[in-house]
Amino acid sequence: MDARTLQNTRLDRNTAPALTLSGISRQFGTVRAVDDISLDVQPGEIICLVGHSGCGKTSLLRIIAGIDAPDEGQLTMGGKMLVSSSIFVEPEKRNIGVVFQDYALFPHLTVKENVLFGLRKMRKDEAKARVDELLALVGLAAMADRYPHMLSGGEQQRVALIRALAPKPDLLLMDEPFSNLDRGLRARVRSETIALLRALGTPVIIVTHEAEEALSTGDRVVLMRSGKIIQAGPARELHNQPATRYAADFFCDFNALDGRVDDVSVQTPVGALALPDNLRQTGDVAVYLRPRDIEVISTETKAQDGLCGRIESRTYLGETEELTVYLDDQNVRLRVRTDQHIAAEATHVCVQIDWSKAMIFAKNE
């Protein structure tokens, strides 16, 4: 079976969801940590819950695992009710695997013993065969008798992963599983982990606070804020078509310009764009432009069309560069692509905008 066929099989929307959350809420004091969350997870699907610290993603994960109970809502797995107003199935009876942020390996047990820990109800010969299979799958067979402190961070993460997978859970939960790894190692371990999870077909919910990690990992990305789901969908959809200003700020490197809607256009400090037909906002708005949609050309090279002004400051940021340009009697900060190669000695530039790519949001959204 090729990769495309495998993915289509895994994400068949005609099958019953592996997990269904309906109206899940949880309040701590005056804080509504989880606020009316409804979500389906399909068989074999990898979901990324993403958002800033305190948005409710870990609280939601704890409710799914059974570590905490919601105040309201229902939770079903494979058609079986686990949580309702009158039902609460204990975590050990949910067949859910969990990989914690700190991995939670037992320091006094070897790698093999750590993985065996969740298989105590299995026959010894079957348990041993399962452990040997998983250790070989992640390339740790030679380290079976080592202790956790003898392993690298990436190796510890793999042990935690296969320990959670050993009992063949119906759902796997991973709380910031890559955050303790160095940046260079993180990308490799993440890629290897996702490849393994896709091959096994276990549905997974991964919690992360990093936009890049969410976009590169999940079949579907769920952005949370203040206990609510702000937007959910495929990674490209959230990156290319953010539904709110918060989503745009979270996933993309935008220029946010003040705008004002009049009868025929939206006025900004770098020019005006024609009034979009579907624009619902009036008055003050925020106009978002990606760096790639702004062209900045030095006037020292040749005369240019567009709005021209004087460079007041510039800051190199790697892939982009932030310019403060005095345009039309005001300073405007613009983040542009570094590959435009604006000369270091340039003092005056002209700015040209691809207004067709602009996004408009309510000012105080």
Automatic annotation (TrEMBL):
Major location (coarse): membrane
Q: What are the residue boundaries of the ABC transporter domain, all occurrences included?
A: 19-251
- Per its UniProt record, what InterPro entries does this chain match? AAA+_ATPase, ABC_SmlMolc_Importer, ABC_transporter-like_ATP-bd, ABC_transporter-like_CS, ABC_transpr_FbpC, Mo/tungstate-bd_C_term_dom, NA-bd_OB-fold, P-loop_NTPase
Where it sits in the cell: the answer is:
Cell inner membrane
Q: Does the keyword Transport apply?
A: yes
Does the record carry Transport as a key word?
Answer: yes
> Which PROSITE patterns does this UniProt record tie to the protein?
ABC_TRANSPORTER_1 (PS00211), ABC_TRANSPORTER_2 (PS50893)
Q: Which GO terms describe its cellular component?
A: ATP-binding cassette (ABC) transporter complex
Q: Which GO terms describe its molecular function?
A: ABC-type ferric iron transporter activity; ATP binding; ATP hydrolysis activity
The alphabetical list of record keywords is: ATP-binding, Cell membrane, Ion transport, Iron, Iron transport, Membrane, Nucleotide-binding, Translocase, Transport
Tell me, which GO biological process terms does this entry list?
A: quaternary ammonium group transport
The family annotation for this protein states: Belongs to the ABC transporter superfamily.
Protein name in UniProt: ABC transporter ATP-binding protein
Q: Which organism is it from?
A: Ochrobactrum quorumnocens
> Could you read off the lineage of the organism from its UniProt record?
Bacteria, Pseudomonadati, Pseudomonadota, Alphaproteobacteria, Hyphomicrobiales
